[in-house]
Inverse folding.
C-alpha cells in the first residue's frame, strides 16, 4: 500500500513539474484539487513543496503562499522554495520576511536572497547579504559578479573575482560577461585567453560579448573556432547576423543547425520580423514551421498589430490554438493604435484575465480618443497600478488642459510611492504652462532638480517659457529664451509669439516671428499671427522701409 502511494505521489509530482515547466497554471490547479480530494495525498509535504515550486514557476505567488501557510510542518526545503520564488519574481520585501522567519538557513536560501537583490540591481543590499553569509559557495560569488555586471561596474566585479577562493570556470565566465557588459571587449578577450580551462559556456560568453556590441566578424571568428557548439552557440551566431540585418547569412546559419527545434525556428522568424519590410517572408517561415509555440504566434501577431495591419492580426488571432494575456493585450493595443475604441473595448471585455498593461492601454485609448470620463472610470477601477498607469492619466489631463486634475494625480502618484520621471514632470509643467501658473511651474521645476535629481531638458524649459508668456510676463519669458542652456525650439518660440500677439506686443512679436520662420521656413503661421498683431497694435501694417 505504501509503495503504491509513493508511486502515485511521484506521478503527481512529475505532472506538477511539467505544469511548472510549461507555465500551465490551470492544469496545475486541477492537479492541486485532485490532491486535496485525496485523504492519502493532501497531507504530503513532498507534494506541498512541489506545488509551491509549480505555482512559483507559473508566477501565481498567492497560491504558493496559500499552500505554504497550510503546511503544518514546513521543512527547510519548504522555506527555501518560498523564499526563492519571491526573490526570483522581484518581491524582495516578501522574500526577506520569509528569510528572516526561517528557523534555520542553508546556503541555498542565502544565495536565493542574494540573487534576488542582485537581479533587481540593489547591489548594496546584495553586498550586505553576501557579507553576512556564514558560508559562500561558487554560485554566491558568481551572483555578486553578475550583479556588478548589471550595474555596469566591471571594476567591482574584478575585485570580487580576485577575492573568490575558487577559480572554476563559472567565475571566469561571469567575469568575461561583466567586461562585455561594460564594453571592455579587449579585457574580456584577455580573461578568456587566461582561463586555465574553457568550456562551451566560456566560448558562448565570448560569442555573445561580440554579438552584444554588433561585432559580427569577431563573433563569427569565435564561432568558427569553437571546439564544441551547443544550441546556445548556434542561436548566438544566428542572432548576430539577424540583428545586423544580414538575413541571408542568418538563413544560411539556420540551415546548418544540426537539430532544428521550435526555438531555432522562432529565431529565424524573429530575424525577418525585425525588418518590417519582410513581414511576408516572415509569414512564409511561420507557415513552414513544423511545430509552433505560443511565442511563434505572438511574435507574428505583435508585428501585424505594431505595423497597423489589425485585420491580418485579427485573422491570425482567430486561428490561434491557445492564447495568453499577451495575445489579448496585443489585440487591444492594435485597435487602440488605429483609434478603434469600440473594438479595443470589445477585446478588453472578452479578456479571460486582464493585466496592468491591458488596463493601461484602455486608459490611454479612451483618453486619447477624447473619452476622458471613461478613462477616469477605468483608472479608478484598476486592480493595480504601475508607473505607466499614473503617467497615462497625468498626460491625459495635461493634454486636455485640466491643470488642477493633473496636479492632483501627480501628488497622488507621489503619495503612492511612485517616483516621477522626466516625462511626468514634462506633463505637469505643460499643464501649468496651459494656465500660466508661473509660481507652481517654477516650484515643480525646482523639485524635479533638487528632490529627484533629474536633468531638465529643452521641453521642460519651454514649459516654463509658456508659463511666463501665458501669464503676461513676456520680459521673463524672453530672458529665459535667451539664457536657457538649450537652443529654444519652434514650439517655445510659437508659444511666445502667440502671447505677444494676445498682448499686442509688436516688437517682440516681430522678433519671435523671425525665429519661428528661421526654424520652420515653410510655416505660414508666424506671418498670420504677426499680421494680426500689427492690426491690433498699430491699426495697420507698418510702412516698408
Amino acid at each position: 500500500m505504501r509503495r503504491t502511494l509513493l508511486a502515485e505521489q511521484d506521478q503527481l509530482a512529475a505532472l506538477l513539474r511539467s505544469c511548472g515547466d510549461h507555465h500551465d497554471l490551470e492544469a496545475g490547479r486541477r492537479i492541486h484539487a485532485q490532491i486535496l480530494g485525496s485523504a492519502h495525498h493532501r497531507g504530503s509535504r513532498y507534494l506541498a513543496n512541489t506545488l509551491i515550486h509549480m505555482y512559483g514557476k507559473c508566477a501565481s505567488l498567492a497560491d504558493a503562499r496559500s499552500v505554504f501557510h497550510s503546511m503544518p510542518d514546513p521543512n527547510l526545503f519548504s522555506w527555501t522554495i518560498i523564499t526563492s520564488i519571491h526573490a526570483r519574481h522581484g518581491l524582495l520585501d516578501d522574500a526577506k520576511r520569509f528569510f528572516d522567519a526561517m528557523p534555520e538557513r542553508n546556503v541555498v536560501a542565502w544565495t536565493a536572497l542574494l540573487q534576488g537583490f542582485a537581479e533587481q540591481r540593489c547591489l548594496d543590499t546584495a553586498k550586505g547579504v553576501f557579507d553576512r553569509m556564514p558560508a559562500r559557495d561558487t554560485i554566491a560569488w558568481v551572483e555578486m559578479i553578475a550583479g556588478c555586471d548589471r550595474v555596469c561596474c566591471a571594476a567591482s566585479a574584478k575585485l570580487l573575482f580576485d577575492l573568490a577562493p575558487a577559480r572554476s570556470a563559472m567565475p571566469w565566465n561571469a567575469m568575461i560577461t561583466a567586461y562585455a557588459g561594460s564594453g571592455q571587449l579587449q579585457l574580456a578577450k584577455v580573461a578568456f585567453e587566461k582561463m586555465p580551462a574553457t568550456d562551451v559556456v566560456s566560448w558562448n560568453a565570448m560569442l555573445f560579448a561580440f554579438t552584444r556590441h554588433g561585432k559580427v566578424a569577431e563573433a563569427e571568428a569565435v564561432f568558427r573556432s569553437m571546439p564544441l557548439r551547443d544550441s546556445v552557440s548556434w542561436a548566438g551566431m544566428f542572432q548576430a547576423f539577424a540583428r545586423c540585418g544580414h538575413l541571408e547569412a542568418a538563413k544560411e546559419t539556420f540551415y546548418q543547425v544540426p537539430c532544428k527545434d521550435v526555438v531555432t525556428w522562432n529565431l529565424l522568424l524573429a530575424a525577418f520580423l525585425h525588418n518590417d519590410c519582410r513581414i511576408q517572408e516572415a509569414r512564409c517561415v511561420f507557415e513552414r514551421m513544423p511545430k509552433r509555440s505560443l511565442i511563434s504566434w505572438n511574435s507574428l501577431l505583435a508585428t501585424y498589430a505594431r505595423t497597423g495591419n489589425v485585420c491580418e492580426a485579427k485573422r491570425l488571432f482567430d486561428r490561434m490554438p491557445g492564447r495568453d494575456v499577451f495575445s489579448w493585450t496585443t489585440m487591444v493595443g492594435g485597435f487602440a493604435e488605429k483609434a478603434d475604441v469600440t473594438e479595443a473595448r470589445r477585446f478588453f471585455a472578452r479578456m479571460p484575465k486582464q493585466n496592468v498593461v491591458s488596463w493601461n492601454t484602455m486608459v490611454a485609448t479612451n483618453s486619447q480618443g477624447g473619452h476622458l470620463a471613461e478613462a477616469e472610470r477605468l483608472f479608478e477601477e484598476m486592480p493595480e497600478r504601475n508607473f505607466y498607469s499614473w503617467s497615462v492619466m497625468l498626460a491625459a489631463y495635461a493634454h486636455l488642459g485640466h491643470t488642477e486634475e493633473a496636479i492632483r494625480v501627480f501628488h497622488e502618484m507621489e503619495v503612492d510611492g511612485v517616483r516621477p520621471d522626466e516625462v511626468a514632470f514634462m506633463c505637469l509643467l505643460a499643464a501649468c504652462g496651459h494656465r500660466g501658473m508661473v509660481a507652481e511651474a517654477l516650484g515643480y521645476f525646482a523639485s524635479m532638480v533638487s528632490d529627484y535629481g533629474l536633468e531638465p531638458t529643452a521641453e521642460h524649459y519651454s514649459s516654463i517659457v509658456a508659463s511666463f508668456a501665458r501669464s503676461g510676463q513676456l520680459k521673463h519669458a524672453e530672458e529665459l529664451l535667451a539664457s536657457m542652456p538649450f537652443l529654444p525650439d519652434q514650439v517655445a518660440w510659437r508659444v511666445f509669439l502667440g502671447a505677444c500677439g494676445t498682448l499686442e506686443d509688436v516688437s517682440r512679436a516681430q522678433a519671435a516671428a523671425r525665429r519661428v520662420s528661421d526654424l520652420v521656413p515653410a510655416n505660414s503661421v508666424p506671418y498670420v499671427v504677426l499680421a494680426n498683431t500689427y492690426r491690433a497694435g498699430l491699426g495697420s501694417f507698418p510702412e516698408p522701409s
The chain is about 75% helix and 0% strand.
